[in-house]
Specification:
This protein is α/β, with parallel strands linked by helices and 551 residues long. It is built from 23 helices and 18 strands. The structure holds zinc ion. The site of zinc ion has 9 residues, from loops.
Amino acid sequence: MARRRLGDLLVEAGLITAEQLTHTLNTKSPDEKLGDALLREGFITEQQLIEVLEFQLGIPHVNIYQYPIDQELIQLVPKELAKRHYAMPIRRDKNRLFVAMADPMDYFAIEEIRMATGYQVEPAIATKDDLYRTITKYYDLQESMEEIMGEFSPKDTIDEAKVTDEDSPVVRLVNQIIANGLAQRASDIHFDPQETEFRVRYRVDGVLRTERTLPKHMQNIIVARIKIMANLNITESRLPQDGRIKTTVNFKPVDIRVSTLPTIFGEKVVMRILDLSNALNNIEKIGFTNDNLVKFQTMLKQPNGIVLITGPTGSGKSSTLYAALNQMNSEDVNIITVEDPVEYQLEGVNQIQVNEDVGLTFANGLRSILRQDPDIVMIGEIRDTETAQIAIRASLTGHLVLSTLHTNSAVAGVTRLIDMGIESYLISSSVIGIIAQRLVRKVCRDCGEEVEATEREKDIFAERGLEVHTVMRGSGCPSCNNTGYRGRMAIQEVLPINDAIRKLIMTGGSTAEIRQFVQENGMKFLLDDGLLKVINGQTTTEEVLRVASLD
Ligand SMILES: [Zn+2]
């Protein structure tokens, strides 16, 4: 490759003027790279720089997240070298080593890597930010793993000190896996025993993906460490256990729910990360449309009655419930909850944890609650007839009851109660509103672009009486891990039970009949709410169709 100067290339490409180049060369400090100085001056963007290098010099641009990076390559390039040059080895082919670099024209760096590895270096371009995160992730984790493997052989027994001493490698490794999960905004971390390896997976924005695989012999010591952290019985591995970890990561309080499950290949551990800083959402921030928000707020202002939130597991039902409770929480109301498990602790609210082992069920807990003079009662979930009956009795005797049901739509909530054996007159006299909710991923703000809607999209919108021309779509970038999505939001349907619907329920109207009636009266279903949010550029049609059906 002929050595060409970056500055000349950029001037040739018309991205900067000769004056800007001279100015930058004259004012930058001697050890600052020209590319960095131009970025700092704001004359070019990192993307422009990458494009010039890619098209003018034919140096490939890589997004290192797409590379399943080979652990052996990391041992080839020392960490110090990787960090100093922002260089990450990504692939090896015979005597050639492909290295992603922030500055692929840095011939001294390339030479240094060639000398250290003995390979011919083929540079590729990646963004600095992208490289920094990948290098930190792989090298730091690799270091603690190597230490563990050095200090712990598969034949060793697990002794107490190894898993409790804050400086021991396994302790640091587990901390690092958690910190990494938080950095990637994971909601859950799975430790999966496989036949020949131990897999670590993160769930980010609702999608589970493998973070890395560890050698099988590290399984037991890692599980032991997690059990110690969560106050679980370390010697019990044949029964499932539940526990909790309260810790701080990067000065932030983190609450983690831990559950273990014996599988044929050993104990599987799932950590659910409860990020306390996000726990208490304001109702306004959950994603209700103005129309739906007004309806929901009206329900919450009623002195008595039942408000139900429905949806499958992972649809954000409890976040909405907590936001509602948080809004109503004040000194002059007595709020009592019975939950399984208590997910977030609310100040000034009496929260009861269901404990089946000692006979404290939802129904029992609820009975005791009602003797404690509550104004507002929250029941984590109505799972059985007995709980449903007590909830209805509570609402009929002057309490506002909030709870969740595991159904697919708001209208189906009515049918579920009937299936539980509740008389329709009791339902119509107690339930004041039902909300169905789902979570969809939001379009990444960094790479989202307005694009023309497809014909199929236009058809789908037209079927719901909506018109769409352009939609937002993320092309993938480092800040969204190349998925095009970042963060999640809720879509809802809100069904206030008015006199007409009450009459329908009383006279034994079917789900289909109630559904048709509310549709004729202008109800916006989950799908409609989702499509509106597509039109607003917040999410995509695919996301909405993934969680809300067309029929
Ligand atoms: Zn993005």
